[in-house]
């Protein structure tokens, strides 16, 4: 008798403890303002900021500018490309996530003039702002790979492109599924530019390896990972772990290889290397192109870095802690477009959004902003279907585990997989609504 | 997680199951728990006979919970990679077991009044 009563009591107490924890979440009071806020981009960072700012500000005119009808949950692309989710898993509508308090201008941005504080769309509409959030995301420069076209993906030729879209991720799965039935040579790679989720190319190598093993074709297959530089991952301790895992899974590595061209007929990839061009044959590959800031930011605005490693690709010149522009103080960056050393993931966006929110609200209220971003990035690095390493790190290449002592960052765990499969999209959606 | 509050957790669970299904599940859990407390208070004692049947239900409850989680997450026993995974597995099993026991006990109590329970002995 006492057993079940005690259990019931324990359940009630756990509920009470949770309710107590919620007490700390009291929302700050709404600030009255007539400020015009323009948010460029309705992706993860843009939508979350639109929701949070409209919650914090009373009377602000918030305009979100983005032509995209579909919103893509990009962390799901890997699962789609592994045959575990349909393409529709990652697709929703942009308008599903925007608050009533914000106006969506469904047009592409052509130009940003931070001197005049105006944004001009491709149809010539000019929108003035008091505060600007640049959250455009980045562009995948497919044209930079000679001989490549997205039409080649999923044509039975072994060419995949997980990053391109949910549909292309699904087509890549068809190719990977076919390849792992027969075996052959799989070549994985990454671009030399900054990129979103640097773990994704590695995950996909692991997943392909897993399928080949399950299907019994791994013995007659060769796996090669062509790294763009001397390492597999920017964080040294993670790099070393990955080196060990690649060795265990017999995934060969060639370094300093940057993809230049693809020949779909001959099934070869040509790489730029320090010793000149090198060509590798492939039966299956996942093409990932260079990534850059969108044209409007890179070429039609003065907002990008003017010198240094990020100037060529147009990443926004913002303070790495406050994400505020260093030359135009009414401009912030959030998400992939930010020219900071780490963090082109949805997890980074989740951490950046409250910092930008605090910066803008403080600027409006005339107070000092206190929130800062320390480069937090998270990568559930899948090592096979059913296991992942929950890797979290910051600007300083330190591991910053959310559950220290419980979920070890460099261990391949089922719990980390469960989080990726079950909790991540939910957390992402909650973030979009400004609730997480 | 930057901040793990009840509000965040509710938001996340709403997204996992959908807002409607989540609150239906919460309502079902509350109703079953309330029913359980009701029969305990009404009868002013625990029926050991019903409790025994409820205990038997714990085994299929635990197994069903584990298989359900594995099914919806495309994973299996071979994926357990460390001690924390074993704890998660046991936790899932325990939740299934306790849930099944409370459900079965409550349903029995609502069907058979204590007098009938006496008569059955």
UniProtKB/TrEMBL annotation, chain A:
GO molecular function: FAD binding; sulfide:quinone oxidoreductase activity
Keywords carried by this UniProt record: Signal
GO biological process: sulfide oxidation, using sulfide:quinone oxidoreductase
Sequence ranges assigned to domain FAD/NAD(P)-binding in this UniProt record: 36-138
InterPro entries for the chain: FAD/NAD-bd_sf, FAD/NAD-binding_dom, Sulphide_quinone_reductase, TAT_signal
Secretion signal, residue range per the UniProt entry: 1-21
PROSITE patterns cross-referenced by the UniProt entry: TAT (PS51318)
Listed name of the protein: NAD(P)/FAD-dependent oxidoreductase
Organism: Histidinibacterium lentulum
Lineage: Bacteria, Pseudomonadati, Pseudomonadota, Alphaproteobacteria, Rhodobacterales
Automatic annotation (TrEMBL), chain B:
Transmembrane spans: 20-39, 51-69, 89-112
Pfam families named among the record's database cross-references: DUF5368
The entry's keywords: Membrane, Transmembrane, Transmembrane helix
Protein's name according to its UniProt entry: DUF5368 domain-containing protein
Species of the source: Histidinibacterium lentulum
């Amino acid at each position: 008798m006492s057993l079940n009563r005690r259990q019931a009591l324990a359940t009630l107490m756990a509920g009470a403890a949770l309710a107590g924890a919620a007490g700390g979440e009291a929302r700050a009071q709404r600030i009255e303002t007539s400020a015009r806020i323009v948010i460029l981009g309705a992706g993860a960072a843009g939508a979350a900021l639109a929701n949070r700012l409209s919650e914090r500000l009373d009377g602000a005119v918030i305009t979100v500018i983005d032509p995209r009808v579909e919103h893509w949950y990009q962390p799901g692309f890997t699962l789609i490309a592994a045959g575990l989710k349909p393409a529709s898993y990652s697709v929703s509508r942009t308008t599903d996530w925007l608050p009533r308090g914000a106006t969506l201008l469904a047009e592409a941005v052509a130009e940003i003039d931070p001197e005049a504080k105006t944004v001009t769309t491709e149809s010539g509409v000019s929108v003035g702002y008091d505060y600007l959030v640049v959250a455009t995301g980045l562009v995948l420069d497919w044209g930079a790979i000679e001989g490549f076209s997205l039409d080649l993906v999923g044509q039975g030729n072994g060419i995949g492109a997980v990053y391109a879209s949910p549909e292309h991720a699904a087509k890549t799965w068809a190719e990977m599924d076919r390849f792992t039935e027969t075996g052959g040579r799989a070549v994985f790679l990454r671009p030399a530019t900054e990129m979103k989720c640097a773990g994704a190319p590695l995950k996909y190598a692991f997943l392909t390896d897993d399928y080949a093993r399950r299907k019994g074709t791994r013995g007659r297959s060769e796996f090669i990972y062509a790294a763009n530089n001397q390492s597999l991952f920017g964080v040294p301790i993670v790099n070393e772990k990955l080196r060990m895992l690649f060795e265990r899974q017999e995934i060969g590595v060639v370094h300093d290889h940057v993809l230049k061209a693809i020949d779909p007929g001959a099934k070869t990839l040509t790489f730029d290397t320090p010793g000149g061009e090198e060509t590798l044959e492939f039966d299956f590959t996942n093409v990932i192109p260079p990534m850059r800031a969108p044209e409007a930011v890179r070429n039609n605005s003065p907002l990008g870095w003017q010198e240094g490693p990020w100037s060529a690709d147009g990443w926004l010149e913002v303070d790495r802690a406050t994400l505020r522009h260093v030359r135009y103080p009414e401009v912030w960056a959030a998400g992939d477009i930010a020219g900071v050393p780490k963090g082109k993931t949805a997890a980074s966006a989740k951490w950046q959004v409250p910092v930008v929110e605090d910066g803008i609200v403080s600027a409006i209220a005339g107070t000092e902003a206190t929130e800062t971003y320390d480069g937090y990035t998270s990568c559930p690095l899948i090592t096979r279907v059913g296991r992942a390493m929950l890797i979290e790190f910051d600007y300083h290449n330190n591991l910053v585990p959310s559950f220290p002592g419980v979920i070890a960052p460099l261990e391949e765990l089922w719990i980390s997989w469960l989080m990726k499969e079950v909790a991540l999209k939910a957390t992402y959606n909650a973030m979009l609504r400004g609730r997480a | 997680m930057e901040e793990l509050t009840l509000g965040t957790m509710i938001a996340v669970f709403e997204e996992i199951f959908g807002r409607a299904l989540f609150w239906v599940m919460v309502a079902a859990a509350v109703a079953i728990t309330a029913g359980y407390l009701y029969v305990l208070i009404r009868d002013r004692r625990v029926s050991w006979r019903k409790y025994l049947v409820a205990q038997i239900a714990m085994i299929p409850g635990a197994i069903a919970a584990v298989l359900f989680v594995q099914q919806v997450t495309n994973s299996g026993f071979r994926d357990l990679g460390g001690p924390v995974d074993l704890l998660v597995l046991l936790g899932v099993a325990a939740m299934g077991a306790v849930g099944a026991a409370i459900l079965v006990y409550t349903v029995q109590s609502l069907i058979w009044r204590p007098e009938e329970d006496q008569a059955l002995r």
